[in-house]
């Protein structure tokens, strides 16, 4: 990968942020870029981070990657400052700008995990997801699973039931299938048979898909 | 009529409400429809502490927020404000009883809580302190084992102590109430219930688990079917019917003929009463010598299946198979009941949730499900030929069941409904309870049957007397003789079959016994008669349940199906000669 300076990172971050708001107009963006340094735009083109066509700025794949990471670091830093250190929204931007250049990928992921893989920064802009977020999602999904993913003989706690139709939901609740209850899966074929307290209930896959359970770890 | 105080029994399904009802009321019970519905409400008189009460049994329900007709009726019975409510709960499932109890407290009526099946709870290591529970709820709490009668006297003694329960939870509507109830229930259960010792599975539990797994579930199912075949086909239809038939032929009929001839000198009336198509010699003989033993045995068998908790397991086993014919496992219940009586079964299709399912179910009930008397007779006749003959009959009927069901599933529009069913534990049925049920069902059945038998016989007698029978036989002969290759006399079986299929089958039984039919003719005529039109009673019920148009459609559809496939079967049997 080509060398990048602090200024270039910052400039790419700005282009990213404009793009989020659907702005690619050269004339509108150039003003902000010039605040960083007057020749930055030419420099970015030279390094192959951006392309300028018909008065619009496009990120190249390598530029895109840098912009993605810098935005992620910046916004995670904002979250950290805001949530953990309880610094004012108005003041956090400055410090975040410092942080974003010194954080390594590992530290970024640790912060992300510490904060619980947040999806938005304090200013409500989306935080680009890192590897740690995808991993966590998978793990979380494997902890909370739908009934049809369990095996016969498994025991798990009911997390939630996602049935919209009131009549069906009520039927389950009145049979004692209530979130928080321990459920024992007795068999899966030819129909699911579960036991909650002393009540045994047979149900088919349509119901089973919509009952979510938290595996005991 | 004397005014008694009324007691209403309410509770979750499968908690033994009707057994308690029987213990409280004894013999003097009437079963009647709740006005405007077909749900049966049992009512009886019981006297406790020298005071007489009218006791009403309500359909089981899980919640007062009602979605089914059954629950709606229980709610209405509560609205009629009985003098006291006895809630019956499952001792091993106190939580669910308490859920319903909290809903019932809203109505503010004097109550007693009866925790039934406390023996099952004990076996599972669950101990409940009724004293503390009584204090917490503010009403008498009685533990019972209804089947053995344990605790029933105590229940009777405590009726005078019924109180309006304490209001522990204030009303919140909708699903939110569940959370509040749950918290209260947690508190109560932890104070009154203790679990002692390890819960080890019992033989009955294990058997119950086996019965719903593919293996050995299907093996058990085949064993149950074989048992039914032996019990109905061999024992009821051959041994019992044979004995009673002989009794009628050798002693009762000649005696009746003699006595009637000596009392009434008019030969027309003598013939009408005790001739070949006499009301006594044919209608009464068929009812009591052929139908009665078979139906009796079927209802005993059905009662055992019902009370043992096997039927819900059958629903689980057959759920997937029933999807093929556009139904789900729940439809097993009306289908099995249809093996008892088609008319009863058509009414019971109300438990199915969509119109499409109900239509398919009533069509299949009318087409391919023989009622108990018919089934017994079919088993009886076929077991006299060969096992292979039975298999051919079974194959054709099941083949058509799947064919027609699958076809209707494709033709009729409508979403499939998901399957949800509570599975009670396997229990050993009480003999007393089964006999009580059998007696009630038998009385209902015979009351339904005998008038039709007498009417059908009288029609047969008249058309025979005025030589119309041979005319009808001649009219039917292109179908009966040419297409089905059966003797022309079979036309009379089909004519009475219009009124009742089992009567037609009984006629066939006599013809087969007299050696008038070859084995392959017997198989063909049994298939035709199985697929034949719904009997008159079933037709009336169909009319009420699905409307006159659909009832007539079902009538003509089954009629053409039966003759068409009967003819094809005849054709096949002629070519391959396997019977």
Protein model, in words:
The complex is a heterodimer of chains A (217) and B (579). Chain A has nine helices and eight strands. In chain A, a hairpin with a 2-residue loop joins β6 and β7. The longest helix of chain A has 24 residues. Chain B has two domains: 191 residues, P-loop containing nucleotide triphosphate hydrolases (Rossmann fold); 365 residues, no CATH class. In chain B, the strands form two sheets. In chain B, strands 2-3-4-1-5-6-8 form a seven-stranded mixed β-sheet, sandwiched between helices. The longest helix of chain B is centred in the middle third of the chain and has 50 residues. Chain B is globular and about 80 Å long. The relative contact order of chain B is 0.07. The model of chain B has no long low-confidence stretch (mean pLDDT 85). Chains A and B meet through α8 and β7 of A and α3, α12 and β10 of B.
Strand content of chain A: 15-25%
- In whole angstroms, the N-to-C terminal distance of chain A is 42 Å
Total beta-strand segments of chain B: 10
Second CATH tier, the architecture of the largest domain in chain A: Orthogonal Bundle
The share of residues in helices of chain A is: 40-55%
Structural class of chain B: alpha/beta
CATH superfamily membership of the largest domain in chain A, which one?
Answer: Winged helix-like DNA-binding domain superfamily/Winged helix DNA-binding domain
Question: Gap between N and C termini of chain B, in Å?
Answer: 63 Å
Domain module count of chain A: 2
Instruction: Give the overall average pLDDT of chain A.
Output: 84
- What is the arithmetic mean of pLDDT of chain B? 85
Q: What percent strand of chain B? A: 5-15%
Strand order of the largest sheet of chain B: 2-3-4-1-5-6-8
Helix content of chain B: 55-70%
Question: Low-confidence parts of chain A lasting 5 or more residues at pLDDT below 50?
Answer: none
The topology string of helices and strands of chain A comes to HHHEEHHHHEEHEEEHE
Query: What value does the Rg of chain B take, in angstroms?
Result: 27 Å
């Amino acid at each position: 990968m080509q060398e990048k300076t602090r200024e270039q990172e910052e400039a790419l971050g700005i282009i990213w942020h404009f793009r989020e708001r659907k702005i690619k107009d050269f004339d509108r963006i150039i003003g902000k870029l010039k605040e960083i340094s007057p020749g930055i735009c030419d420099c970015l083109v030279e390094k192959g981070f951006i392309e300028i066509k018909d008065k619009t700025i496009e990120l190249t794949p390598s530029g895109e990657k840098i912009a993605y990471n810098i935005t992620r670091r910046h916004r995670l830093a904002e979250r950290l400052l805001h949530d953990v250190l309880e610094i004012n929204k108005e003041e956090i931007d400055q410090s975040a700008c410092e942080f974003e250049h010194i954080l390594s990928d590992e530290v970024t992921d640790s912060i992300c995990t510490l904060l619980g893989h947040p999806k938005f920064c304090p200013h409500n802009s989306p935080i680009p997801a890192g590897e740690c977020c995808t991993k966590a999602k998978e793990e979380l999904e494997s902890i909370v699973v739908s009934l049809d993913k369990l095996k016969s003989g498994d025991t798990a706690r009911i997390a939630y039931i996602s049935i919209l139709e009131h009549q069906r939901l009520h039927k389950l609740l009145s049979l004692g299938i209530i979130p928080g209850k321990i459920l024992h899966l007795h068999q899966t074929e030819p129909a699911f048979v579960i036991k909650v307290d002393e009540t045994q209930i047979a149900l088919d896959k349509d119901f089973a898909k919509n009952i979510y359970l938290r595996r005991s770890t | 009529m004397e005014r008694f105080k009324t007691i209403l029994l309410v509770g979750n399904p499968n908690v033994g409400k009707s057994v308690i009802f029987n213990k409280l009321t004894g013999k003097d019970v009437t079963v009647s429809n709740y006005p405007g519905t077909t749900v049966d409400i049992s009512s009886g008189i019981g006297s406790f502490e020298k005071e007489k009460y009218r006791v009403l049994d309500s359909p089981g329900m899980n919640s007062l927020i009602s979605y089914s007709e059954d629950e709606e009726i229980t709610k209405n019975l509560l609205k009629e404000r009985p003098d006291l409510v006895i809630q019956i709960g499952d001792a091993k499932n106190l939580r669910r009883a308490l859920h319903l109890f909290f809903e019932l407290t809203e109505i503010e009526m004097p109550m007693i809580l009866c925790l039934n099946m406390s023996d099952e709870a004990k076996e599972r290591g669950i101990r409940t302190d009724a004293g503390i529970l009584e204090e917490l709820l503010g009403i008498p709490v009685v533990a019972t084992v209804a089947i053995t009668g344990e605790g029933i006297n105590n229940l009777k003694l405590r009726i005078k102590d019924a109180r309006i329960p304490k209001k522990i939870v204030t009303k919140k509507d909708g699903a939110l109430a569940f959370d509040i109830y749950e918290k209260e229930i947690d508190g109560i259960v932890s104070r009154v219930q203790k679990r002692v010792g390890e819960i080890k599975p019992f033989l009955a539990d294990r058997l119950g688990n086996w019965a719903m797994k593919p293996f050995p579930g299907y093996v058990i199912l085949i064993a149950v079917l074989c048992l039914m075949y032996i019990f109905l086909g061999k024992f009821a239809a051959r041994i019992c019917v044979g004995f009673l038939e002989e009794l009628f032929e050798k002693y009762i009929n000649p005696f009746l003929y003699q006595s009637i001839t000596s009392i009434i000198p008019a030969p027309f009336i003598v013939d009408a009463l005790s001739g070949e198509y006499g009301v006594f010699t044919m209608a009464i003989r068929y009812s009591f010598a052929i139908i009665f033993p078979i139906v009796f045995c079927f209802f005993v068998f059905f009662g055992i299946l019902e009370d043992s908790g096997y039927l819900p397991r059958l629903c689980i086993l057959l759920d997937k198979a029933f999807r093929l014919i556009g139904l789900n496992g729940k439809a097993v219940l009306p289908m099995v009941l249809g093996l008892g009586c088609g008319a009863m079964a058509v009414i019971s299709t109300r438990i199915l949730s969509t119109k499409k399912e109900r239509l398919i179910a009533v069509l299949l009930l009318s087409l391919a499900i023989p009622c108990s008397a018919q089934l017994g007779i079919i088993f009886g006749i076929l077991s006299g030929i060969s096992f292979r003959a039975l298999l051919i009959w079974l194959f054709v009927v099941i083949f058509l069941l799947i064919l027609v069901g699958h076809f209707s599933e494709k033709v009729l529009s409508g979403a499939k409904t998901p399957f949800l069913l509570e599975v009670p534990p396997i229990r050993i049925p009480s003999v007393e309870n089964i006999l009580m049920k059998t007696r009630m069902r038998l009385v209902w059945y015979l009351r339904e049957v005998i008038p039709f038998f007498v009417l059908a016989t009288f029609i047969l007698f008249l058309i025979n007397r005025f030589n119309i029978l041979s005319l009808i036989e001649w009219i039917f002969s292109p179908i009966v003789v040419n297409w089905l290759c059966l003797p022309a006399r079979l036309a009379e079986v089909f004519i009475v079959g219009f009124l009742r299929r089992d009567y037609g089958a009984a006629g066939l039984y006599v013809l087969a016994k007299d050696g008038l039919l070859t084995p392959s003719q017997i198989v063909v005529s049994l298939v035709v008669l199985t697929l034949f039109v719904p009997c008159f009673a079933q037709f009336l019920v169909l009319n009420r349940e699905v409307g006159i148009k659909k009832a007539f459609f079902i009538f003509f559809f089954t009629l053409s199906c039966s003759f068409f496939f009967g003819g094809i079967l005849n054709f096949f049997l002629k070519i391959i000669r396997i019977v």
